[in-house]
Structure formats: C-alpha cells, structure tokens
Amino acid sequence: MLEDYSQGFSSSIRKFEEMLKTNYTYFFDAQEIEYVAQHYIDFGKINLAKKAVKIGNKQHPANINILLLKSEILILEDKLETANEILAFIHEIEPNNLDAYIQKATILSKLKKHKKSIETLNECLIYSEYKFEVWHLIALEFLTIGNFQKAMFYFRLCIENEPNDHQVLYNLIYCIDNLKLFKEGVKILRGILEKDPYNELVWLELGKLYLKLKNLNQALKSFDYAILCDDQFSAAYVEKAKLLQKNNNYLEAIENYQFSLTLESPSAFVYLRIAECFKMISKEKLEMKYYKLSIKEDPNYEESWLALIEYYLNKNNFKGALIYCNKALKINEYYPEYWKMYAKINKCLNRFVAAEEGFKNIIGLGIDELRSWSGWIDTLISQNKWEKGYLIGKKAKKLYPNVPDLDFKIALCYLNLGKKNEMEFYLENVRKNINLLSPKLLEFYPHLEVLI
Q: Alpha-carbon distance 154 to 116, whole Å?
C-alpha cells in the first residue's frame, strides 16, 4: 500500500493538521487520507493515524485501502479479533487482496501460530507479482521458529532479487552462521556478486565467511575489494585491520584502524585494538595513550579498563593498577572482572582486608568460581581469621565437594583453633585425594605436610 509517497501529499498533512486545530471537517480524497494515515503509522503517531482513518471511513466508507489501514492500526494495538473481522469483510469483496493476506499472516504470527502464518503467506504468493515482501515475511516466520534451513532458503530468494537490502543480507548470514554452512554461504555471496560486483557489503560479509573457513588470503582479498567498491567504507578497513593484526602485521593494522577513525565517529573498540598493536611492537607510551583514549571515548567499555589495569600489573606497578581499578569500579561496581582484578592487586600488595572484600564481592555477584572461594579463604588465613576461614571453606565445599585443597585449608583453620578431631576429619579427605592436591599448598604450609 502506498509504496511511493508523492511529495505533493505533504500539503495533505498540513491540511489535516490545520483541520485538527479548528471545529471544521475538511474533505480529503481517498488517496490523500490514505497517505496521511500511513504517514502517521510510519512515524508511530497512532492516535493521529486513527483520527485520519476515522475521517476516511466517513468520507469513503467502501474504500478497501482505508479499511486495511484501520485493521493495520488495530493489529498494532493488539485488537486482533476486530482486525480479523475487517479482514474477513475485505476477503469477501476482494478475495485476492495481497495486503489482507499479509495482515492475516501478521495476526497469526502475533498469536504464535507461525505455521498457519506461513501457509497464509504461501497462498499470498499465488497472487503476488512482486514476491520479495512475501518471501521476506515467510523467512522471518521460519526464523522465529528456529528453522534456519527454510529461513535461509527464503532469505536467499530475497537477496538474489534485492542484493542491496542490508537487513536481508544480515539475516541470511545469521542463518548461515547458525547452520555453519560457510562453504555454501561463500557460493551464495559469490553468486550475488556476479550480478552486483560493486556491492561492498557483500564483499565484506564474504570476507568474514572466508575467515570462518580459515582462508585468510581470500578474506583479505574480499576486504580489499570492499574498499575498492567504497573507499570510505569504515567497516571494511576495521575488518582488514583485525586480520592484519591476527597475521602479526601490526604497523599495517594500525594504519587501517587509524584510517577507519577518520571515516566515522571515534570508537572505543578501535582505540583498544590500536593499543593492542602498539603493545605487540613494544611502543609502551602509545599503547597506554590508546588505552586511555578508548576509556575516554566510552567509560563503560570494560575491556579497555581491564587492559589498562593489566598494563600496570605486567610492570609490577600494583599501586598504579589499583588506581585504575578503583576508577573502573566507580563506573561499574557490578562487573565481576573488576573485583577479580581488585582482589588480585590487593593480594599482591598484602592488603588482605581489601583483597577479602574483592573476593566477597565476586561471590556476592553470583560468580561461584573455585578460584574466588579459594582466594577468599587464603585472605582469611593471612589475617589469622581461622573461624571465618573454615566457615567460608565449608560453604565452598558444598559447591566443590571433591577438592582436596579446600579440605587442606579447612584443616589448617581447625589446627590453629586447636580442634584436632575436626582437623583430622578434613585431613583424611586430603589423604584420599592426595594426588589432586596442589603442590604449592605444601610450600606455603609445610608444617601440615607431616600430618598428611
């Protein structure tokens, strides 16, 4: 309906809005009111669209297109039963009306009757000359029920007819990825390029498929062709740079990343990638500069914070690492990886109370990793908090019942509390699984070795 909006109809909108400010009702011909209603539907102004349809119904009561607009609005409002009644009326007058079929299929889809929706759309195909829209809707229905094979078939039909439809292409690639049909995907995209050789987006997606097939040379060629088709195509430079980085061509990768930044708004991801390249060629000042640019660009980009903290840790600059870790936690205290860093750094600084806080927060965020439980117990042992140590140890054992390291640490806590019977119980568990005990534990606590 109304696929090509004439510029001449813009005056109809002004006329309609003028009418709303007065007590008068202006006359609109059927096409005018259709355009006005569709305009408001497209912009999500449903109340105005309803007013337009109401006037259209009064002035053109038998107009099918206005009735279809009315049912479309009802579908948007989830008044499906009333919409169905209108569609049934239209079907009696125009049994082969394509828009009525499509709206009926939409209702069935909303009711989660996807197979019936597909059947209705297949009926629609019989009467449709321009099949793209119907194929697309069928593909989306198959996608909804997880039938990637059938969805891929219909998306392929769509893309072969409309190679520049980006959303169809992305959906097709999504199906290919889920089915892992990368070789077939390459054939499909190459077939599209035979008809449309200057389609930069298809070249880009072809390059990504070649990467999944480990064909790096063809991937690089595809990204280069994408750039040849459009030398301002930022995404192609980024993908090429990622591949060059993977191949250890760091300087060329940096050049491509940096050029991509001149084409679009700065990106925290690209700044981080540049920093990683500078790290690999030992340009430390530039590495740090780009970490900081990445964080400045997007303070919520966790990977950049973690990389910057790791930068200081690798230099054993624990105080510098802690400064940035605290800054990261101020931005997002609910991100477990920050607390892992916080605990690790404070443990290195022998700040066991702070390290304990870190491990406690990791567990509190629902990350039940053995490493975190074990680290928490270690900080308690380091503070001679023996009673709390065995209590936390017992909680950990409920999750990890067959880990002798936990038994060892709990036994150590009981030893220091003078509870030898309890200590002996846990040491017996250690003896049963002595081959699984971490050798480092005996280095840290050699006085327990004789008891084992």
A: 17
